[in-house]
């Protein structure tokens, strides 16, 4: 059996506490821009900020699914976001340009009338993806990026990559040539690696060697969850390596999985982590660093597929995400950094224009619905039944 981490190396020390000197030191060791006046700004703002007008955000990591589930969830994303990178982990997965073009058509067909929402499509990387397919993808003008799922890492990843260095290097080299970004679900799948260490081990064994080998490849580490991921992102010059961050990894730690009993609607992958990791990614996104941008990872599953003996991983947050990001930035005294995270850093990284339309977040209490009902069942959203204080309005 391979033991990657002894307890003394990991953050599993029994004396560990989120407010201990050890955690302060760990957080201070992150080389992020500092915001010395944050506390003062937080107090000043909380008394007067009633409305935030901002450039329309984009969602750089979204699961729209297909069929009636697509129809049920698309209006939520289309209402708040200008564009979204649409994940390809359907059944069967979107492995070819032809499939991506057809999937995009099926999304556009069910868009609410008048919506300008623009779905940016992705290809699902497999051991057999060819360099030729990357050329086709680039020529199509429809495929925006390629998604790496290590085989078995997450929902519908069984057709993913088994050996990236052994099987995918020619494809990755072609992606460099075509300036095609690689989006990464960054977890190893080795069952000997503790599930809470899978992101850290992926960074060490796959991502770091990959970026060293292909320094011109544009890589986005999706849904980062750990201080280790923040350190990884900060260790490269701005430009080719960036990360998306979800509302759940900013607002919840792993206690939320077990509060008062098992909480299947808080189960997603990468799984929620310790509080210190949550604090590290809050510091990262609110620091003003341009390497982090909004990616909800909104991942709807029909309620019965979450509340069962082997429940699916994925949190549905498309309808609440903007309110939740605003909550995080407000609580950190960093509302002035919210718009860059939601609306500037993503398009700037990808070389796209920022959206020209606006959205307004109003300080107004609203209750998250308990469920959304659609023809095949119901979906339970993140923070179901709870009251939130920022309400997105069209203008
Ligand atoms: N995040 C999740 O827990 N689930 C996602 C897949 C993914 O993004 O890993 C899904 O498609 O359901
Ligand atoms: Zn993922
Ligand atoms: Zn996802």
UniProtKB/TrEMBL annotation:
Domain Amidohydrolase-related, residue spans: 59-358
BP-aspect Gene Ontology terms: 'de novo' pyrimidine nucleobase biosynthetic process; 'de novo' UMP biosynthetic process
Pfam families in the cross-refs: Amidohydro_1
Catalytic activity annotation: (S)-dihydroorotate + H2O = N-carbamoyl-L-aspartate + H(+)
InterPro entries in the cross-refs: Amidohydro-rel, DHOdimr, Dihydroorotase_CS, Metal_Hydrolase
Domain of life: Eukaryota
A single GO cellular-component term on record: chloroplast
GO molecular function: dihydroorotase activity; metal ion binding
Pathway as given in its UniProt record: Pyrimidine metabolism; UMP biosynthesis via de novo pathway; (S)-dihydroorotate from bicarbonate: step 3/3
Enzyme Commission number: 3.5.2.3
Gene3D superfamilies, A to Z: Metal-dependent hydrolases
Keywords of this entry: Hydrolase, Metal-binding, Pyrimidine biosynthesis, Zinc
Family: Belongs to the metallo-dependent hydrolases superfamily. DHOase family. Class II DHOase subfamily.
NCBIfam families: pyrC_dimer (TIGR00856)
Protein name per the record: Dihydroorotase, mitochondrial
Organism taxonomic ancestry: Eukaryota, Viridiplantae, Streptophyta, Embryophyta, Tracheophyta
């Amino acid at each position: 059996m391979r033991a990657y981490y002894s307890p003394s190396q990991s953050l599993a020390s029994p004396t560990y506490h989120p407010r201990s000197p050890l955690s302060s030191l760990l957080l201070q060791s992150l080389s992020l821009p500092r915001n010395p006046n944050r506390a003062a700004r937080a107090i000043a703002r909380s008394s007067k900020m009633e409305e935030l007008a901002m450039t329309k955000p984009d969602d750089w990591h979204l699961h729209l699914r297909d069929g009636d589930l697509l129809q049920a969830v698309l209006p939520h994303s289309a209402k708040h976001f200008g564009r979204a990178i649409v994940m390809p982990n359907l059944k069967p997965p979107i492995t070819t340009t032809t499939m991506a073009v057809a999937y995009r058509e099926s999304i556009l067909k069910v868009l609410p009338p008048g919506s300008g929402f623009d779905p940016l499509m992705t290809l699902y990387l497999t051991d057999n993806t060819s360099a030729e397919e990357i050329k086709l993808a680039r020529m199509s003008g429809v495929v925006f990026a390629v998604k790496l799922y290590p085989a078995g890492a997450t929902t519908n990843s069984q057709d993913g990559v088994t050996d990236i260095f052994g099987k995918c290097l020619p494809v990755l080299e072609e992606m460099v040539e075509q300036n095609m970004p690689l989006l990464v679900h960054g977890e190893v799948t080795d069952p000997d690696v503790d599930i809470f260490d899978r992101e850290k081990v992926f960074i060490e064994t796959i991502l770091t060697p990959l970026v060293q080998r292909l320094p011109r490849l544009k890589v986005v580490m999706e849904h980062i969850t750990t201080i280790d991921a923040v350190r990884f992102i900060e260790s490269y010059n701005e430009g080719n390596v960036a990360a998306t961050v979800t509302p759940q990894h900013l607002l919840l730690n792993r206690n939320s999985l077990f509060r008062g009993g098992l909480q299947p609607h808080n189960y997603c992958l990468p799984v929620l982590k310790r509080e210190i990791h949550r604090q590290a990614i809050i510091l990262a996104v609110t620091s003003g660093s341009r390497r982090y941008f909004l990616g909800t990872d909104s991942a709807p599953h029909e309620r019965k597929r979450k509340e069962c003996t082997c429940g699916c991983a994925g949190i549905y947050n498309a309808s609440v995400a903007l309110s939740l990001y605003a909550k995080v930035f407000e609580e950190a005294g960093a509302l002035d950094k919210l718009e860059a995270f939601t609306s500037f850093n993503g398009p700037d990284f990808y070389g796209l224009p920022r959206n020209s339309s606006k959205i307004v977040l109003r300080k107004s209490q609203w209750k998250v619905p308990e469920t959304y009902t659609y023809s095949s069942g119901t979906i339970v959203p993140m923070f179901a039944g709870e009251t939130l204080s920022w309400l997105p309005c069209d203008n």
